[in-house]
Amino acid sequence: LIWVDQDMIYRVFVNLVENAIKFTPVNGHIEVGAQTTTDGAFVKFWVKDTGTGIPTADQDRIFEKFTRLRGKNRAGGLGVGLAFCKLAVNGHGGEIWVESEVDKGTTFWLTLPVSKKHTTGQLKRVTGRLTFKPDKK
């Protein structure tokens, strides 16, 4: 069980899958998956494609705001999607990274921590802040 801002993490996956679609040829393959880490502390997710790939030199900077790649990897957009993904995942106590090879494809990995406490309640967003009110027992 993981506790997340559902809208925010949904947007992370939409960004990653839309990028995979954008850079994968018509007959390509896109895979989305998840599994717990061996220590059980995190859920590890991935979005993998057989698209154009990302040059090694660009892999660190793709998570910076307003970064758009040139050449055959160029696509429309403002260059903020992956920066948002990094902020959202890090804000939840997780990590995001990429593994890629040009002309072979790309895998985006992300981890989100497993909740140590299983509590139910109401999660509300008020003026941009999240608040959690546990159910009474």
Describe the structure.
With 137 residues, the protein is α+β, with helices and mostly antiparallel strands. It has one domain: Heat Shock Protein 90 (2-Layer Sandwich), CATH 3.30.565.10. Helix content is 21%, strand content 31%. It contains 2 helices and 6 strands; from the N terminus they run αββαββββ. The strands form 2 sheets. It has a 4-stranded antiparallel β-sheet. A two-stranded antiparallel sheet has the order 5-6. Helix 1 packs antiparallel against helix 2.
Secondary structure elements and their pairing?
Elements: H1 6-23, E1 30-36, E2 42-49, H2 81-91, E3 95-101, E4 105-113, E5 121-126, E6 129-134
Antiparallel strand pairs: 1-2, 2-4, 3-4, 5-6
What's the short story on this structure?
The chain has helices at 6-23, 81-91, and strands at residues 30-36, 42-49, 95-101, 105-113, 121-126, 129-134. It is an alpha+beta fold and 137 residues long. Strands 1-2-4-3 form a 4-stranded antiparallel beta sheet. It has a two-stranded antiparallel ribbon with strand order 5-6.
Label this structure with key terms.
137 residues, alpha+beta, Heat Shock Protein 90, 4-stranded antiparallel sheet, two-stranded antiparallel ribbon
